[in-house]
Amino acid sequence: MRPLRFSSLPGGLELDVREEVRRLALPIAEADGLELVDVEFLVQGRRRTVRVLLDRPEGIRVGDCARFSRHLSDCLDMNQTMAGGYSLEVSSPGIDRPLRTLEAVGRFIGTKVALTTHELRDGRRKHEGELLAPDGERVGIVMDGSELWFDWPEIKDMRLVVDPWARVRGGEKGTR
């Protein structure tokens, strides 16, 4: 799906809606001590949805999401970012948290991740393994006993993989 663009800025400058929402949401999140994990902009027919994922070390609460949602909604309306109607969803990243920055990757070293590349690598786009410490702009995983390294721009998506049996077996690493 192509990112939607709007041209409401002076000079007809086009910006990706997702990036504009991120630009407006980041200072609101930081003021509340929250981490802005991701911003998604989805269009399904006539329905447009802005989804914002937030977190904090001690976990995100419903009240945090509600307060942030009110502030961001006011900001989006005031800046006329979204012409017409839209739905705003604010929530935690969930157990399959997306990793969108190298900083986030660094916090989850040793956990299992699933990553998808833009292009085929070894005949596949989907790779799963234990996350290694980033090396500059490179991300590595241990997959089938071997290290596999990816340049950051090669990665289309990366998410934590939660093993539902880890607590039963004990000793395996969790997501935090």
Quick overview:
The protein is α+β, with helices and mostly antiparallel strands and 176 residues long.
Main sheet makeup: 5 strands, antiparallel
| Helix fraction by DSSP (H/I, runs of at least 4) | 10-25%
**SSE pattern:** EEHEEHEHEEEEEH
| Cα shape | globular
Instruction: Write out the strand line-up for the largest beta sheet, numbering strands in chain order.
Output: 9-8-7-6-10
Number of strands: 10
- How far is the N terminus from the C terminus? 31 Å
**Alpha-beta classification:** alpha+beta
Description of the molecule:
This protein starts with a strand and ends in a 7-residue tail after the last helix. The protein is α+β, with helices and mostly antiparallel strands and 176 residues long. It is globular. The chain folds into 2 domains: 5-91, RimP-like superfamily, N-terminal (GMP Synthetase, Chain A, domain 3, 2-Layer Sandwich), CATH 3.30.300.70; 102-169, Ribosome maturation factor RimP, C-terminal domain (SH3 type barrels, Roll), CATH 2.30.30. The protein has helices at residues 17-31, 62-78, 102-107, 166-169; strands at residues 5-6, 15-16, 35-44, 47-55, 87-91, 112-121, 124-131, 138-143, 146-151, 155-160. α1 (17-31) packs across α2 (62-78).
